[in-house]
């Protein structure tokens, strides 16, 4: 916190009533009672301790978020690799299935030809 104000006034109360307590990022006027507390050394120490704790908590949070982002990035890269492998494997499986389908079709055609030959032979055998 930064304190600014009219320091030319003689009485402390007058000075505090015209003093602003500026919080970084925004200006807020506080009551003279709150300002008196900020001049109390133990209160000031507590405020500094809370600010330090808040700063440390913020840094810890930033580190945690950074670590999470790194883990998510690694996971994403690993997933992309796995997806690539799956696509490759899927392509190979598709080719194998097409090959098996062609072999099966050829096998069925051979069975049909053999069946026709059998009936033709059977018909000829009966006529003899």
From TrEMBL:
It comes from the Eukaryota. Keywords: Coiled coil. Residues 69-96 form a coiled coil. This is Uncharacterized protein. It comes from Micrurus carvalhoi.
